[in-house]
Amino acid sequence: MGTVTLGVSIAVPEPYGRQLQELRAGFGDAAAHGIPTHVTLVPPTEVDTDRLPAIRAHLAEVAGAFPSFAMRLEGTGSFRPLSPVVFVRLAEGTAGCTRLQGLVRDSEGPLSRELAFPYHPHVTVAHGISEEAMDRAHTELADYAAAWLCEGFALYEQGFDGVWRKLREYPFGIGPEGAPAAVPAQSASATDAASRRS
Asked: Are 73 and 124 in contact (CB under 8 A)?
């Protein structure tokens, strides 16, 4: 039995994801191309491989009961001096991300874990680079803005090469084992009614 390093996150969609990844690389962050642009729900977590089926089932269950929500990025922030990180701020969607990560990390679930810092959803654009480069990232992206409808999240695995690769997507409104979410009963359309009478 071995272990794998997993993460759960909301991908920043195109064209924004690639834009921010290229900008991150341009600031001198060597890890940029190995990390898809994202908002973290569960940070890197080492687990036994035999827990993967339970983790996948748990994530499908959470996603199946969760609604889509609006997300908007606007401006920059930093965790310095506590942590050498510059990020793009989440101006809308914080409540959705916070509630979602709480469900994913549920204390009774297979991804239960403590966090080193209080949860703060954001999109990292510079990490562990020179102070000058982080200052540049903070300034150059101060007017950055993007918005989209978040419709799911994904499970990622970090390879031995340090690159994060998507294992599976979990769209909202889809239940465990890929079954569609329940749809409320609707009245029959005129076409349906006519076809039943014929």
From this structure: no
Q: Which helix (H) or strand (E) holds 91?
A: strand 85-92
Give the pLDDT confidence of 54-99 residue by residue, as tens digits: 999 999 999 999 999 999 999 999 999 889 999 999 999 999 999 9
Do 118 and 105 touch, CB atoms closer than 8 A? no
**Do the Cβ atoms of 40 and 7 come closer than 8 Å?**
yes
Give the single-character DSSP code of 169.
E
**Within 10 A of 81 (CB to CB), how many other CB atoms are there?**
7
Query: For residues 77 and 151, what is the distance between their CA atoms, to the nearest angstrom?
Result: 25
Contact 123, 29 (CB under 8 A): no
List b or e across 153-176, with b for residues whose CB sees 16 or more CB atoms inside 10 angstroms.
bbbbebeeeeebeebeebbbbbee
Rounded distance between C-alpha atoms, residue 21 and residue 58, angstroms? 29
Q: Residues 45-54: pLDDT tens digits?
A: 999 999 999 9
Q: Could you identify the residue written with the tokens 């966090």?
A: 115
Helix pair angle (131-140, 16-26), 10° resolution: 150
**Among candidate residues 83, 90, 78, the one with its CA nearest the CA of residue 39:** 90
